[in-house]
Design a protein that fits this description.
- The protein is an alpha/beta fold.
- It has three domains: about 80 residues, Arc Repressor Mutant, subunit A (Orthogonal Bundle), CATH 1.10.10.10; about 100 residues, Periplasmic binding protein-like II (D-Maltodextrin-Binding Protein, domain 2); about 100 residues, Periplasmic binding protein-like II (D-Maltodextrin-Binding Protein, domain 2).
- It is built from eleven helices and 13 strands.
- The strands form three sheets. Strands 8-12-7-11-9-10 form a six-stranded mixed beta sheet. The protein has a five-stranded mixed beta sheet with strand order 4-3-5-13-6, sandwiched between helices.
- A hairpin with a 2-residue loop joins strand 1 and strand 2.
- It is flat.
């Protein structure tokens, strides 16, 4: 049978964490998607790979063998990628940077301005992608740099990789529903009309994936293509908005409180692909500088 590399990464993470939930979070996959991938892996293997219990999962003998060999394959793949990457990237190829809705609002534009002015001989292509897609594309050599989101359920990022806080908050007009509150659950926010990004935006997809099928179905009075417009709609009283805190200007006097769900405690983190090339290290440094500013 043929093995999917993402399935192998997921299975190794599940065995390491002792939990499908934790393994899925480590690869920025939703729990239903991760569970389906593990079941499909067992079906194609023709043998049970995990013993499921109340406190998590543990590998069967076949599962232990698969996890061990998967680790060897993935390690070998990483070495292979590094060995040929320098030859695969022609001179003049643009640096490809992937990021989600939040980073595209301020962080990426600030970094691009400084980088492109300082490096007129290097071009940059930016694409908006969900964190899970960014991780996959970096691993597959389809991008050079990525800004991804990790939350409180993930391992803390290293100081070198951490860019800035990206925690989610509920925003309303001055004196609105979030005023005077430390936090609101999404269910409480959904008791009011909402405004947000279009359904296919990375932030909107993240909310849907983390809230699950039992979350209340809110009434969205308006959907926008960028977070600035979403905040403007919330400021005008059209509806409450769930956005990263750093996109809200504190000088506007808007009503703001934290989103209470655990996944809302988020951090933007820098990730690298396997391809070396002109400008990659320099763009990474500009992203760090923009985050610190």
């Amino acid at each position: 049978m043929r093995y999917d590399l993402l399935d192998l990464r997921l299975f190794r993470a599940v065995v390491t964490e002792g939990s499908i939930t934790a393994g899925a979070a480590r690869l920025h996959l939703s729990l239903p998607s991760a569970s389906a991938r593990v079941r499909a892996l067992e079906h194609h293997a023709g043998v049970e790979l995990l013993v499921r219990g109340r406190r998590g999962v543990r590998p069967t003998p076949a599962g232990s063998a698969l996890a061990r060999h998967a680790g060897e394959v993935l390690d070998d793949l990483g070495r292979l990628e590094g060995a040929v990457a320098g030859y695969r990237r022609p001179a003049g190829t643009p640096v490809t940077l992937l990021a989600g809705s939040s980073a595209m609002r301020r962080l990426v534009p600030r970094a691009l301005v400084g980088f492109l002015v300082a490096h007129p001989d290097v071009d940059v292509v930016t694409r908006e992608r969900r964190s899970a897609d960014t991780v996959r594309m970096l691993a597959d050599g389809e991008a050079d740099l990525g800004v991804v989101v990790v939350d409180a359920r993930d391992d803390p990022p290293s100081a070198a990789d951490r860019l800035t806080d990206d925690s989610l908050v509920v925003v309303g007009p001055p004196g609105g529903a979030p005023a005077g509150r430390e936090a609101m659950t999404f269910a409480e926010a959904a008791e009011h009309p909402l405004v947000g990004l279009e359904p296919d935006a990375p932030l909107a997809q993240t909310l849907e994936a983390n809230l699950g099928e039992h979350a209340p179905v809110p009434r969205y009075r308006g959907r926008a293509v960028d977070l600035g417009t979403v905040v403007d709609l919330a400021a005008a009283g059209v509806g409450l908005a769930v956005v990263p805190r750093h996109v809200v200007d504190p000088d506007r006097g808007l009503a703001v409180c934290e989103l209470a769900e655990p996944f809302a405690r988020r951090t933007l983190v820098l990730r690298r692909g396997a391809r070396p090339g002109p400008g990659v290290d320099e763009l990474a440094e500009h992203l760090r500088h923009a985050a610190s500013a």
